[in-house]
Amino acid sequence: MADAFIEWQIDPRDHPGRGTAEERIRFLLGYAILAPSGHNTQPWLFRVRPDGVDLIADRTRCLPVVDPFDRALVISCGAALGHLRTAMRFFGSDACIELLPDANDADLLARVTFGDAITPSSRDVARFHAITRRRTTRKRYPDEPLPEGLGAELLAAAAYEGCELSILVDAQRKRAVAALVADGDRAQFADPAFRRELASWVHSRRAATRDGMSGAAFGMPDVLSAVGGLVIRTFDMGDRQGATDEAIATGSPALLALATAHDDPPAWLHAGMALSSILLSVTAAGWTSAYLNQPIETDALRPRLRATAGLAGHPQLLFRIGRAQPIDPAVRRVVSEVLVEDRRHAIP
Fold this sequence. Notes:
The structure is a single chain. By secondary structure, this protein is of the alpha+beta class. About 40% of the residues lie in helices and about 15% in strands. It is built from twelve helices and eight strands. Strands 1-2-4-3 form a four-stranded antiparallel beta sheet, covered by helices on one side.
């Protein structure tokens, strides 16, 4: 089973420090692909260039029911971009990032080249080492205060990308947001199309696709992933899931709501890069996270979340943070599977 997680076992000492830009980028992409993505779809492709790399949206991995405008898909790609930037900085180079460089190509999300040589800060180093330790942990977290200084660090990470972050630790506000999460669960699971889409991404970690979510994420053995998918597809579990998520959210140390001033692809990319920095800081502090995006994915609830969380902008992500026992990571496709030479050949 250890081989299922081999993509997480990167040794920084293998970095080709004196290699070409292309050789260094290919190595650094091993960190980019460890970014989080909706349903672990991993909706990114990369085209290596002599001086850097292009980030391309793989819309064949979209979620048309839960994410009809590819908002979450682009945020996921932004998170991969953020992980790549963190890795580049650790190995001594600033990252020059141009978002949406071709107005005629909506799939070309970013172009990244090596910038000036830098000395990584202590925060750069901490976030880099957190990349391979970051997990999405859906278990309950004990309610305890945030580590000293973490809240300020997360607010700064969001602000750096021009994003807004609301950190909810007050019990009353957590209960109000948790109630919206439960409402979202009930609305989503009542929709057979939502259940079919979710079930289609529930795979065993041994599956050849190396994507999706193991049944272990839903509290069952990995070998029963197919059964879990069948159950999700067949039954409306909205009431039960809503009650569970409401209790978990209310009891978590903090709920985080990330928003942007605009609701368009550039804003989504910035939200993804902010998410990368936030989650790596959370991991470096010894904590973990899990998503509660139901109120954002449900149109009727998104404005209510905005008001309840005290946000001025458009809510893009909702998640909880806390402490939990270590778990296995999600599977990842190998870097060679997400490399393209010519995107016309990669995306039919």
